[in-house]
Design brief:
By secondary structure, the chain is mainly β. It has seven helices and 87 strands.
Length: 1129
């Protein structure tokens, strides 16, 4: 039984729209990721994520429109499964308004280009393009229906025919002769919906046609130009049509060498043409103003241009005035951005660039140089073309080839929030509390004493400064706080107010032992056994209250005090200044409240109260006035939870240290890559906390069992990344041994020849020093030579870097020859690449693996076993081909485990081989034995062997399959011989194209299995859209529970568009449509269980509706299971 969950959600953004979807008249930015919509507010602080809407489907097109009677705009979403739906923001959440799921024509082939969804400028309808030779038009206004008995049915008189009701009326299929459509736009200012189409014919020539949509007859009517030749045989590099928003109408054609403006067909005028210097491959466009007279254009290299259009009035001989027409224009380069997928102009000079190869970025236009300036960056890992696992002391890092072209980089990705240590001071055991002050002053509390240290982070040492500000070191410190210009210090028996400038202090001794303290404004609140005391800054007692039970913990927020009680296991709320009881929680399970804190989290409107329990449970509530609402429960481990405030959240310590922060109106809990601290504090740079810069790195001091550590806490509250910018595409990588200390890398540098416009690609082999994390040497390959794979291995006691290449040819798509290049990495301080062996082969080397001291290469359709050895007679390395195996079409992937080799074929799935000694009757030293194969066609993108019995394959339509031996008699009959077949034991649709799968080493799995018992981690896989996922095996005793939980949830928890998770995850390709979801659990979906209301959880656990079954566990047990699954990432 298989389990998969995202440890880094896909970050590529391909679609964006600006509309007032949250509040009338207030623009928001809607971004489409593969399976989610992000809605961001636009403010002076930049873009702020307000809502993230999961979608059980892959978004392929996005638009927005505003119904006539609606306060806000609605979002129109189109998915890969040809399902469209509308969303409206109602009562603080997005609600599905309508779904159309019958759009696809099963008998018409899919388009070769991306799906298109465009809204008519007059909002009369939405045009979809997803099948060849067919367009789909969805009316947004009510029109006469089809003729009945020869008469047209009139629209109801209650609604005007021009009203945009928000209803998606029955769609109409419109036949179109053009099969290869490159771009479609609606034209402005037309009486009926009119489109312009850029298409390519069978001879690769590009042409334009203009069609009018005749809805009553359900057909397209071509509007012929008086000079038909002007719309034919256009610029061969033409990629886009852009509708001109002005009253002048018409449209622009963005070519590679020429920019062309086509007048409205009714004018019958010849197009205007503007040649420009050098080839430009335009790929994105946005209109700056409502008139369309200024446009932003972006090209494939991230350059931005401003197109300024001049208009003039056209007059006839009789002096009658025609509307304005385009007279002239000017194209000006104004700067560079990330590589655009789309451009979206927002307002006031701000525009947003969505990108697949680069970070999506908010820019603004400036009148001064540089004209294009960065305002905000949204990180992006896409596309991840390759990755390897790097084992460190406490974590497994992912080293990935990320991005493309000028944004190409090498990245180290870790799961959870990162704390990078900047200083570690040893031999400081037993710290139970920490408070920091400017000047690297640390007050450390121990069980029976307090010590004040001054830390020197450069020399990594501390010195005891006993007597600092008169602090008594004979007792442990309970709490400390800066109150204006003074410092409050609370010990077990006294409260003291210290003036650091004069060293004067006021103190008061109390009867009993102080167990807790809190501060608000100029007040102190002390907890002494079961008594709560309010004191002024001058230590005057202002109020007190006796409670029925001993106080366990306290915190304050504005004029409220929150008190956790021992015996009642609840939190009571008191108001200041009279300590009047105003509310309380119900009794809490999980033992005793051990730590409470209330704070405002970024992205969440209401303040949130967190209660850490003795058994590792964490409760959180929203505070409305004095009322606590929306209780949520999380499990952080089995140890008591301690909460420490940070600038943008909380640090929670239990069995599993966690960061708590807010995003899109949700409380997010992420793991932290440190051992559980015994105490923690944020380092202060100034006496005034208001002076702290939220954008600066947050430095924390924390204590472990015997150390005091200073570290930098990641600002990115998620998977965190270390980046080496390469400014060219990183394609493949391998990590050599710690002795070599380098990462081998293949990169591609793409340039455009200035005169011909031809694309020139140069390929390099590079090495990155792992200690310095920088490129230290590079080797340029020959012209037209492309490196396809890289690996490393030890031959005759020396570790080498091995690269497989192929020579590109204009005459043939496949490689006719290639080379195996063997490099030695020499040098200790400065590492260098030395080519020590090259061997030419008849075909391109698509993959290479070192298997038990031998090199296995995939050379076109042949898998070859080769040996690399030191020739005794010549004293140099030599290369020998030992044996081969023919793959059905093209062997593109190899993976090895012991002496097994898994072959991924371009079209014919996977085959498992084993390396065996050669027979006594043959001259070969080795041979391949075909162990098993999968016989159904699959277009593989990668394959990975997990062990001698199991392997994973991912294919080009976004699916994953898990294969296992099938040695039964029925399997032998299917295959037609005595060899077993590889049977699919689990399969699902990922919804993204997976580029690489990597097995998790056995040692790492065993270490993780000691902590996680429900799922055994087996592999990671990375996608074209920047997602990184974990694949694992589910423990046998939890299989039925998780299968039933997923099914029960699917009947309760639907995504936007009312899409069912089980339908989305079905293995689906051209042969299996629809396929099946087989023995797979979607971890990201299961984790939504934690966000549900209690009633929904009870309903899911109890089952008994629409085929659901009772889980056999209660809500608490189900929550604990899902919490453990969540800690996997």
């Amino acid at each position: 039984m298989s389990y998969t969950v995202a440890i880094h959600k896909p970050s590529s953004v391909r679609h964006a729209v600006v509309a007032d979807v949250l509040e009338s008249g207030v623009q928001s930015l809607v971004l489409a990721r593969p399976s989610a919509l992000d809605v961001l507010s636009i403010s002076e602080q930049g873009l702020v994520l307000q809502h993230s809407v999961p979608i059980n489907g892959t978004v392929t097109a996005l638009s927005a429109f505003k119904p006539s009677d609606a306060a806000v705009s609605w979002i129109f979403v189109f998915t890969e499964d040809c399902i469209c739906f509308t969303l409206a923001f109602i009562n603080q959440r997005f609600v599905t308004q309508q779904v159309l799921s019958d759009l696809e024509d099963r008998f018409t082939p899919d388009t070769d280009t991306a799906h298109v969804a465009i809204v008519d400028p007059e909002h009369r309808g939405i045009l979809l393009y997803f099948n060849k030779s067919s367009l789909t038009y969805i009316p947004l206004i009510q029109t006469p229906s089809k003729k009945r008995n020869g008469k047209a049915a009139a629209a109801p008189s209650s609604a005007p025919s021009s009203a945009i009701t928000g209803i998606l009326y029955p769609h109409v299929k419109l036949h179109i002769d053009e099969l290869i459509i490159i771009s479609i736009v609606f034209l402005e200012g037309t009486e009926t919906p009119t489109i312009a189409v850029l298409y390519r014919d069978g001879q690769h020539a590009r042409h334009v046609k203009v069609y009018e949509i005749i809805l009553s007859e359900q057909r397209l009517q071509e509007i012929a130009h008086p000079q038909p030749s002007v719309q034919r045989n256009l610029d061969q590099g033409a990629t886009m049509l852009v509708s001109f928003k002005s009253t002048a109408g018409g449209f622009f054609l963005l070519g590679e060498q020429l920019l062309t403006y086509f007048y409205p067909p009714s004018l019958g005028k010849s197009p205007l043409k503007l040649p420009f210097d050098g080839p430009i491959n335009f790929c994105a466009c946005a209109s700056i103003d409502d008139t369309g007279e200024r446009l932003l254009l972006g090209d494939e290299f991230g350059k931005i241009y401003m197109l300024q259009v001049s208009l003039a009035c056209s007059r006839l001989g009789d002096d009658s005035v025609y509307p304005q027409v385009v007279e002239n224009w000017k194209l000006t380069p104004i700067g560079e951005t990330s590589i655009p997928t789309t451009l979206t102009y927002i307002d006031s000079g701000f525009f947003f660039v969505t990108s697949h190869f680069s970070p999506s970025t908010l820019f603004y236009l400036s009148e001064e140089q540089p004209h294009v300036r960065t305002a905000q960056v949204l990180p992006n890992l896409a596309p991840i073309t390759d990755f390897q696992l790097l084992q460190r002391d406490s974590s497994t890092d992912i080293v990935a080839c990320s991005g493309g072209f000028k944004s190409g980089s090498l990245r180290i990705v870790r799961s959870g929030v990162g704390v990078d240590a900047i200083a570690e001071i040893g031999d400081v055991p037993g710290i139970t509390g920490l408070w920091t002050f400017p000047g690297n002053i640390v007050v450390a509390s121990f069980i029976e004493r307090t010590v004040v240290y001054q830390c020197d982070l450069e020399k990594v040492e501390i010195r005891d400064i006993t007597g600092w500000n008169g602090i008594d070191g004979s007792q442990p410190t309970i709490a400390m706080q800066i109150l204006g210009s003074k410092i409050a210090h609370i010990s077990k028996s006294a409260a003291k107010i210290i003036d650091p400038l004069t060293s004067y202090s006021d103190s008061t001794t109390v009867d009993g032992v102080i167990s807790g303290a809190a501060f608000v404004d100029d007040y102190l609140i002390l907890a002494i056994v079961n008594r709560l005391i309010l004191m002024s800054a001058s230590l005057e007692e202002l109020a007190s209250v006796n409670l029925p039970h001993e106080i366990a913990c306290i915190c304050t927020y504005q004029n409220l005090v929150f008190v956790g009680l021992w015996d009642e296991c609840k939190v009571v709320i008191f108001s200041l200044p009279h300590l009047t009881k105003v509310g309380e929680t119900a009794s809490l399970s999980g033992g005793i409240p051990r730590s409470i804190h209330l704070c405002n989290l970024e992205g969440i409107e209401l303040p949130v109260l967190f209660i850490g329990m003795a058994d590792g449970t964490l409760y959180n509530y929203y505070l409305q006035g004095t009322t606590l609402t929306d209780q949520k429960t999380s499990v952080l481990g089995t140890q008591p939870v301690s909460l420490y405030p940070l600038r943008k959240g909380l640090f929670a310590v239990s069995s599993h240290p966690s960061m708590i922060y807010g995003s899109a109106n949700k409380v997010i809990i992420s793991g932290v890559n440190v051992a559980s601290p015994t105490a923690l504090a944020v380092c202060m740079k100034s006496q005034d906390a208001m002076e702290e810069d939220d954008d600066e790195d947050e430095i924390i001091a924390f204590a472990t069992d015997d150390r005091l550590i200073y570290g930098v806490l990641d600002q990115l509250m998620s998977t965190h990344v270390q980046t080496l910018e390469l400014h060219e595409t990183a394609r493949r990588l391998t990590i050599m041994s710690p002795v070599a200390g380098v990462i081998g890398l293949i990169t591609l540098r793409t340039e455009i020849e200035s005169f011909t416009g031809d694309e020139i690609i140069n390929c390099f082999v590079k090495i990155v020093d792992m200690a310095l994390f920088e490129v230290v040497d590079a080797y340029a390959l020959e012209d037209n030579e492309m490196a396809e794979c890289i690996t490393s291995g030890i031959f005759d006691g020396v570790e080498y870097l091995i690269v497989g290449t192929g020579y590109a040819s204009a005459e043939r798509e496949e490689y006719m020859k290639g080379r195996v290049l063997v490099f030695e990495v020499s040098g200790s301080s400065t590492k260098k690449l030395s080519l020590v062996l090259q061997h030419e082969l008849l075909g391109g080397v698509y993959a290479a693996e070192v298997v038990e001291g031998k090199l296995v290469c995939a050379v076109n359709s042949i898998v070859r076993l080769c040996t690399i050895f030191l020739n005794a007679s010549t004293g140099v390395l030599d290369f020998k081909q030992e044996c081969g195996f023919r793959s059905p079409t093209m062997a593109i992937n190899l993976s090895s485990y012991q002496d097994y080799v898994l072959v991924g074929d371009l079209m014919k799935s996977v085959t498992l081989l084993q390396i065996k000694p050669g027979s006594t009757t043959s001259s070969e030293n080795y041979r391949f034995r075909e162990v098993a194969r999968h016989y159904e066609p699959m277009w593989m993108t990668d394959a990975e062997i997990l062990d001698e019995n199991t392997c994973i394959g991912v294919e080009a339509e976004g699916n994953m399959a898990v294969f296992q031996y099938d040695t039964s008699e029925s399997a032998k009959q299917i295959s037609g011989d005595d060899e077993p077949i590889l049977d699919v034991i689990a399969c699902m649709r990922i919804g993204e194209i997976v580029n690489r799968v990597r097995r998790i080493p056995k040692a790492v799995r065993e270490m993780a299995s000691a902590e996680y018992h429900i799922v055994t981690q087996r592999a990671y896989f990375a996608t074209r859209d920047g997602g990184i996922y974990m694949y694992g095996d589910i423990a046998p005793d939890k299989i039925d529970t998780l299968i039933n939980l997923q099914y029960n949830m699917s009947e309760v928890v639907k995504s936007a568009g009312n899409l069912n998770i089980l339908d989305f995850r079905r293995f689906t390709n051209q042969r299996h449509n629809p396929g099946e979801l087989k023995r797979f659990i979607d971890g990201d979906y299961i984790e939504q269980f934690l966000e549900l209301e209690d009633e929904e959880k009870e309903k899911i656990v109890n089952g008994g509706f629409r085929g659901t079954v009772k889980l056999g566990i209660d809500v608490t047990e189900a929550t604990a299971i899902v919490e453990e699954l969540k800690r996997l990432h």
